[in-house]
Design a protein that fits this description.
The structure holds 2 protein chains of 2 kinds. By secondary structure, chain A is of the alpha+beta class. Chain A has 5 helices and 3 strands; from the N terminus they run H-E-H-H-H-H-E-E. In chain A, a hairpin with an 8-residue loop joins strand 2 and strand 3. Chain B has a domain of about 180 residues. In chain B, helix 16 packs across helix 26 and helix 17 runs antiparallel to helix 18. The two termini of chain B are about 45 Å apart. The chains are: A alpha+beta, B mainly alpha. Chain A: It is found in: Golgi apparatus membrane.
Chain lengths: ~160, ~800
C-alpha cells in the first residue's frame, strides 16, 4: 500500500508530454533568423505572455548579433581565406560562439521559467532554425497506467 | 537517402583529375622557364592561387550546404493531414510562397528547395553541382563562388603562361616540355570557356541577389526580389557574412532539464492559482489529498487552468481540467458545466424508471431537485450551481458520490446515492459521457438530474454497464466539468425550458407517447438501468405522464423517451437518458430533463430496492433492449418526420470536443449530409453512449481522438470508434447499452446515418439546437445495433 501510494505520489509528480507548440520564423525581414513574437494561444494559461515574448525577443537579438556583417566577420573571412580555411579546424567562428550563448540562454530559461510551468523550449538550431518548439507537459497525476514519463531530456539531448 | 551512385562520382573525379593533373604539369614543365624568363614570382603566385582553388573546391565539395533536418512527427502531425500545398508569407512586402515538402514534412522556408539528388531540403538552395557532387546552398555558396572565381583566374593564368611558353618555343614544339604545355593550354583553354561563362553567370546572380534556382525557375523575373540587398551589399554578404553552423550535427549536448509538476500557472483565477504560485506545496497538498482521484483530481494545477470549452485535447486533460475546475471552483466555472447538464446517463435512470412504469420521478420533482441544486440562480447560475455540485462531488471523487448526490439531488433518495457510490468505480470516459450528456441536457437542472440520473444510472447500470456507473458517479462532476461552455449554453436553454415549464418547441407528440409508454412499462424489465428502474418503479405518476405530455421539454423528453418511447415514439433504443434525448429531438432537451428531474428525484425512494436487485436488472435490461429496439424503430420513423424540423430535431450531436454540440440534432432516420467527422459518428456514439450514461473509456477515447482529428479525416475516426465500440458488444449488456450499441452499430453499419446526424444539425445554431440535437442524438444511438451499443458501453 505504501508503495502504491508512493507510486501514486510519484505519478502525481511526473510530467507527461502532451503537445508541442511551434513558434514559427518571421520572414518579414528576409532570411535573417527571426522568430515571430506572436504569443501562441495554446500557451495562454500556461505561461505569462510577457515571459515568452521576452524570451523570443532575446533570442532574436542573439541571432541578429550572430549574423551581423561587420568587423569581426570580415576578419574571420580574410583569415579563413588566407589559411585556406584551415583556421576553421582550430577556431570557433563568431556565429558558433553566439549559438553557444543562445543554447546557454535557452537552458537557463528552461530551468528558471519554463520547466516550473511545465514547458520546455527546444533550441531552434535543432529544428533547422525553422521553429521554436515549446513542449507542453501536463501533470500526469494519478491517471496513469502509462509509464512515468517525466520529460527530462532537453531537446538538445536528442 | 539512397547511397550515392557510383556514376555520381564521375564528374567529380574528372574535375579533380583534370585540375590536379593539368596544374601539376604546368608547374613541372612550364614554371621553371617562366621563373627564369618572365618573373620568379610567377610560380609562387600560381601556387598560391592553385592552393586557393583547391581549398575552395574542397569546401564546396565537403561542406554542408545548409541541409534542413527532417521535421519530427510532432511538428508535422498537425500539418500532414490538412496541410495546403502552399503557405504564403510576406517577405519585405512581397508575397512569397512556401511549399510543403512531402519528404521533409515542413513548409520550406523562403529560398529553400529540395534537392532530388541528395534528397534533402537545402536552405537558400542554389543548385546541385555535379562537379563537386554536392548541393550548393546557403553555407557553401561562398566557397563555390570563390572556387569559380579562383578557378577562372587560375585557368586564365595557366593558359596565358603556357601560351607564352609555347610561343617562345615554337621551334621545339615537339619537345616534351612543349608538348605537355600544349596539352595543358588546350585543356585549360577548352574548359575556360564554360567556367568563365559560369562565373559570369554567378556574378550576375550575386549582383541581383538571386540563386540559380530562382533564376532558372524565373521566380523574380518580372517582379521584385525581396531578398536582394543591393549589388554592393550582396557582394559584401557573399564574401563576409558569417557562416551558420550546420543543423544536422550538433556538437554539444546539454544537461537535461527536469520538468516536474506541480506547474505554475499564470493568472489563475482560482484560489489555487495564488497558492500555486507561491509554492507548489499547496497544489501538491491538494494533489495528495486525492491520490486516488484519478482523472478527476488530476492536478490542482490543471484545475486552475481555465479549461477552454472543450479544446481539442485528450480526454484526460479535459477531464482533469474540468474536474479540477469543478472541484476547485465549486462555484463558478460555468464553462465547466458539468453540473447542469443532465447527461443522458443521469437521465437514464429516470428514463428507465419511466419506461419501467415504475413510479417515474415526476419531472417536477426532478426539476425541483435540480433546481434545488442549482439554487435560485438564474439560468447561468444554474449551470454554475450545478457545476458546483458535481464539482463538489467530483472533488471528493469516491466519497463524493454522496456529496454530489446530495448536492444535486436533495431529494434524491439515499439509494441512488449509495448506488452511485457503488458503481462509481470508474471515471474517465464514462464520466465524460455523463458530462457530455449533462452538457447536452443543460444547466442546473441537468446537473441535478444528471447527477441523479447519473447516480441512478450508475447504480442500475452497474450490473449491466459498469461504464455507465462510472459515468454516473465520478463522471457526473467530470462530465459536467467537461461539458463546459457548450453545456452552459445549453444549460441555460435547458433551464429556460425547464423553469418555464413551457415547451419552447413544438411538442413532439411522439414524446408523449414515449413517456406514456415508458410509464406503462413495468419497471422490472428495465433492469438495464437500475436507476431508471427506480424511476420506472415508481408508478407512472401523473407527473411523469404529465411529463410525457410535456412536449415542451423536448430535451428532456429526448432523454426520457427511450424508456418512454417504447410505444409511440419513434423508439430509439437509447437508454432512458438517451431515449429521452432522442425523443426530445423535437423538443428541447431541457424539457425532458426537467421532466426527468423530478422523476429522478422521486425515483430513488422506490427504486432503492430495485437498484439492488440485479436479477431484476438483468431482466430489465432485456426488456429494455426490446424496448430500445422498438423505440429505435419508432424513432426512426420519428426522425424522418423530425427531419423536417432540422436543427430543432433532437440532436445527437457528437460532443465533439465539447459538450454536446447543439447541432446535429438529427434523428437517426433523418440524417442529413455527412457532417464533419467532428460531429458525426463520434458524436453520435458519444452522445448515444452518454445518453445512456455508459460511455466506455474506449469509446470516449476513441471519440475524443476522432473529435480532435475530425477536421482532418471525416468519418474515419468516428467509424473506427464505432467499430471499436461494436466489437465490444455484449449480448447481455443492459438495456442501457443497447442504445449505445445500436447507435454504434448503427453508426458502424451505416456510416451514412451517423454522419447524417451531425451534418443535419450542424448548421443549426449550436445552442438553440442543442437540446434538439440531444434529442435527436438519443434516438440515433438506439438505431444502432444492439451489439454495437453494448460493445461500446463497455
Amino acid at each position: 500500500m505504501a508503495a502504491e501510494f508512493h507510486n501514486l505520489q510519484e505519478m502525481q509528480h511526473s510530467a507527461l508530454l502532451v503537445t508541442k507548440v511551434f513558434i514559427q520564423r518571421d520572414y518579414s525581414e528576409g532570411t535573417v533568423c527571426r522568430f515571430q513574437n506572436k504569443f501562441p494561444s495554446e500557451l495562454n494559461n500556461r505561461i505569462e505572455r510577457t515571459l515568452l515574448e521576452e524570451t523570443v525577443k532575446t533570442l532574436n537579438s542573439y541571432y541578429v548579433e550572430a549574423e551581423k556583417i561587420g568587423g569581426q566577420s570580415y576578419l574571420e573571412g580574410c583569415l579563413a581565406c588566407a589559411t585556406a580555411y584551415i583556421v576553421f579546424l582550430c577556431m570557433e567562428t563568431r556565429y558558433e560562439k553566439v549559438l553557444k550563448k543562445i543554447s546557454n540562454y535557452i537552458q537557463e530559461q528552461n530551468e528558471k521559467i519554463y520547466a516550473p510551468r511545465g514547458l520546455l523550449l527546444t533550441d531552434p538550431i535543432e529544428r533547422g532554425m525553422r521553429v521554436l518548439e515549446v513542449s507542453v507537459f501536463e501533470d500526469r497525476g494519478s491517471s496513469g497506467s502509462t509509464p512515468s514519463s517525466s520529460m527530462s531530456s532537453c531537446s538538445s539531448a536528442r | 537517402m539512397e547511397p550515392p551512385k557510383p556514376s555520381a562520382f564521375i564528374p567529380v573525379c574528372t574535375a579533380v583529375c583534370l585540375l590536379l593533373g593539368s596544374t601539376s604539369m604546368f608547374f613541372v614543365f612550364t614554371c621553371p622557364w617562366l621563373a627564369l624568363n618572365i618573373c620568379p614570382a610567377v610560380p609562387p603566385c600560381c601556387a598560391v592561387l592553385f592552393l586557393f582553388v583547391l581549398a575552395n573546391f574542397t569546401m564546396a565539395t565537403f561542406m554542408d550546404a545548409g541541409v534542413l533536418p527532417v521535421a519530427g512527427e510532432d511538428e508535422d502531425k498537425d500539418d500532414e493531414f490538412r496541410a495546403p500545398l502552399y503557405k504564403n508569407v510576406e517577405v519585405k512586402g512581397v508575397q512569397v510562397r512556401m511549399k510543403w515538402c512531402a519528404s521533409c514534412h515542413f513548409y520550406r522556408p523562403p529560398r529553400c528547395s529540395h534537392c532530388s539528388v541528395c534528397d534533402h531540403c537545402v536552405e537558400d538552395f542554389d543548385h546541385h553541382c555535379p562537379w563537386v557532387n554536392n548541393c550548393i546552398g546557403r553555407r557553401n555558396y561562398r566557397y563555390f563562388f570563390l572556387f569559380l572565381l579562383s578557378l577562372t583566374v587560375h585557368m586564365v593564368g595557366v593558359f596565358t603562361f603556357g601560351l607564352m611558353y609555347v610561343l617562345h618555343h615554337v621551334d621545339d614544339l615537339w619537345k616534351l616540355h612543349c608538348l605537355v604545355t600544349l596539352v595543358v593550354i588546350s585543356i585549360s583553354g577548352l574548359f575556360l570557356i564554360p567556367v568563365l561563362g559560369l562565373t559570369g553567370f554567378h556574378l550576375y546572380l550575386v549582383s541581383r541577389g538571386r540563386t540559380t534556382n530562382e533564376q532558372v525557375t524565373g521566380k523574380f523575373q518580372g517582379g521584385v526580389n525581396p531578398f536582394t540587398r543591393g549589388c554592393w551589399n550582396n557582394m559584401e554578404y557573399l564574401v563576409c557574412s558569417p557562416i551558420s553552423p550546420t543543423y544536422t550535427v550538433r556538437p554539444w549536448k546539454r544537461a537535461a532539464v527536469r520538468v516536474q509538476p506541480p506547474f505554475l500557472r499564470p493568472e489563475l483565477d482560482r484560489q489555487m492559482a495564488a497558492k500555486i504560485r507561491d509554492n507548489g506545496t499547496h497544489s501538491l497538498a491538494l494533489q495528495n489529498k486525492r491520490p486516488s482521484a484519478g482523472a478527476v483530481e488530476l492536478s490542482d494545477i490543471k484545475q486552475l487552468k481555465t479549461p477552454p470549452p472543450l479544446p481539442p485535447k485528450p480526454d484526460r486533460s479535459l477531464l482533469k481540467s474540468q474536474v479540477a475546475v469543478s472541484d476547485d471552483m465549486g462555484h463558478h466555472t460555468k464553462s465547466i458545466i458539468p453540473v447542469s447538464i443532465p447527461t443522458v446517463p443521469q437521465l437514464r435512470p429516470v428514463l428507465e424508471a419511466i419506461s419501467r412504469d415504475s413510479s417515474p420521478i415526476p419531472p417536477e420533482q426532478l426539476l425541483k431537485a435540480s433546481d434545488q441544486q442549482a439554487g435560485s440562480r438564474g439560468v447561468p447560475d444554474v449551470s454554475s450551481g450545478s457545476k458546483e455540485s458535481p464539482a463538489r462531488g467530483s472533488h471528493q471523487v469516491q466519497p463524493l458520490l454522496q456529496p454530489s448526490g446530495s448536492l444535486q439531488l436533495n431529494s434524491l433518495p439515499l439509494n441512488s446515492r449509495s448506488l452511485t457510490l457503488k458503481h462509481s468505480s470508474r471515471h474517465g470516459s464514462k464520466s465524460q459521457l455523463l458530462l457530455m450528456h449533462a452538457d447536452g441536457l443543460g444547466s442546473n437542472l441537468a446537473a441535478g438530474i444528471i447527477s441523479t440520473s447519473g447516480l441512478l444510472a450508475s447504480q442500475c447500470s452497474s450490473s449491466v454497464s459498469p461504464s455507465y456507473d462510472n459515468l454516473i458517479s465520478p463522471a457526473d462532476s467530470q462530465f459536467l466539468a467537461q461539458r463546459g461552455a457548450p453545456s452552459v449554453s445549453y444549460h441555460s436553454h435547458f433551464m429556460s425550458l425547464g423553469t418555464d415549464g413551457t415547451a419552447p418547441r413544438p411538442a413532439p407528440h411522439s414524446y408523449s407517447p414515449v413517456f406514456m409508454g415508458v410509464a406503462r412499462h413495468s419497471p422490472q424489465p428495465r433492469d438495464s438501468s437500475p436507476s431508471l428502474q427506480g424511476l420506472t418503479s415508481r408508478d407512472p405518476s401523473p407527473s411523469y405522464q404529465g411529463f410525457l405530455q410535456r412536449d415542451s421539454s423536448p430535451g428532456f423528453q429526448g432523454l426520457i423517451p427511450r424508456d418512454l418511447q417504447t410505444q409511440s415514439i419513434t423508439s430509439r433504443d437509447i437508454p432512458p437518458p438517451g431515449a429521452a434525448k432522442r425523443e426530445a429531438t423535437c423538443h428541447g432537451l431541457p424539457d425532458s430533463l426537467r421532466d426527468l428531474i423530478p422523476q429522478d428525484m422521486t425515483l430513488p425512494k422506490s427504486a432503492a430496492a430495485r437498484y439492488d436487485n440485479f436479477s431484476k436488472t438483468i431482466m430489465a435490461s432485456i426488456h429494455e433492449r426490446r424496448e430500445l429496439e422498438e423505440r429505435e424503430r419508432m424513432l426512426r420513423v420519428q426522425a424522418r418526420s423530425q427531419a423536417l424540423y432540422g436543427p430543432d430535431v433532437g440532436i445527437y450531436d457528437i460532443p465533439s470536443r465539447r459538450s454536446l454540440p447543439p447541432d446535429n440534432v438529427r434523428p437517426s432516420g433523418s440524417r442529413g449530409p455527412t457532417p464533419p467527422a467532428y460531429g458525426s459518428r463520434e458524436f453520435l456514439m458519444s452522445t448515444g453512449i452518454l445518453g445512456y450514461g455508459l460511455r466506455t473509456s474506449p469509446l470516449s477515447s476513441s471519440s475524443t481522438s476522432s473529435l480532435t482529428r475530425g477536421p482532418k479525416t471525416s468519418s474515419s475516426p468516428l467509424q473506427s470508434s464505432s467499430s471499436s465500440l461494436q466489437s465490444k458488444g455484449r449480448s447481455s449488456s443492459p438495456a442501457y447499452l443497447h442504445p449505445e450499441r445500436q447507435a454504434q452499430g448503427h453508426s458502424s453499419s451505416s456510416t451514412s446515418t451517423l454522419p447524417r446526424l451531425p451534418t443535419n444539425t450542424y448548421p443549426a445554431p449550436p445552442y438553440t439546437s442543442y437540446p434538439t440535437a440531444k434529442r435527436s442524438s438519443l434516438p440515433f444511438p438506439s438505431e444502432g445495433k444492439e451489439s454495437v451499443a453494448l460493445g461500446t458501453l463497455k
